[in-house]
Amino acid sequence: MSTTTIGVLALQGAFIEHEKSLQVCGAETRQIRLPEQLKGLDGLVIPGGESTTMGKLLMAYELLQPIKEMAKEGIPIFGTCAGMIMLAKEIVNSNQTSLSLMDIVVERNAFGRQVESFEADISVSEFGEEPYNAVFIRAPYIVSASPGVKIMASYDEKIILARQNNFLTAAFHPELTEDLRLHKYFLEMVTSYK
């Protein structure tokens, strides 16, 4: 079987931790800072960070359009925390730059500020009975989603994990725990579309 190569957007945020998680799962990774680095990828991870800054950097490095083209080709994209905001078609009370790929409306910093960061055990039906420990840091959440979006997990009645076709998004930081189930789930998505 050919090796799976996953790009991790490396403009800011916890991209190194995502790389480590993906590598433990058996994928090769590539840090993405320029459009030409997107060539030949099987999937892309957009990590947490500061979404306004990330949007500006995507524009500055001319990555916005090439990533949208990748998405059109069906290449899976996984956005976590700020990555969720980047994937959303609508951001509450904001007109910041995003990729506008998922039919979701998100609210930024919906669980409070940095000092109110927390961990919680959540239930993800795809992962069976064992709870998934989710780390929330200035996390967004999905306010509403179109019928084509599969809701995979909620916390405190807020949608925090969802999938739409080749797009996967989480409000939390799976790269900050040792639980690799979400990265493995994304790699299965990649393998089925390769």
What does this structure look like?
- The structure is a single chain.
- This protein has one domain (5-193): Class I glutamine amidotransferase (GATase) domain (Rossmann fold, 3-Layer(aba) Sandwich), CATH 3.40.50.880.
- It has helices spanning 15-24, 51-60, 64-72, 82-87, 181-193, and strands at 5-9, 28-32, 43-46, 77-80, 88-91, 102-107, 118-122, 132-136, 141-145, 150-155, 158-164, 167-170.
- The chain contains 5 helices and 12 strands.
- The protein is 25% helix and 31% strand.
- A 7-stranded mixed beta sheet has the order 2-1-3-4-12-11-10. A 3-stranded mixed beta sheet has the order 5-6-9.
- The mean pLDDT is 93.
- The chain starts with a strand and ends with a helix.
- It is of the alpha/beta class and 194 residues long.
- Strand 10 and strand 11 (158-164) form a beta hairpin.
Give me a quick take on this structure.
With 194 residues, the protein is α/β, with parallel strands linked by helices. The protein has helices at residues 15-24, 51-60, 64-72, 82-87, 181-193; strands at 5-9, 28-32, 43-46, 77-80, 88-91, 102-107, 118-122, 132-136, 141-145, 150-155, 158-164, 167-170.
Topology record:
Layout: E1 5-9, H1 15-24, E2 28-32, E3 43-46, H2 51-60, H3 64-72, E4 77-80, H4 82-87, E5 88-91, E6 102-107, E7 118-122, E8 132-136, E9 141-145, E10 150-155, E11 158-164, E12 167-170, H5 181-193
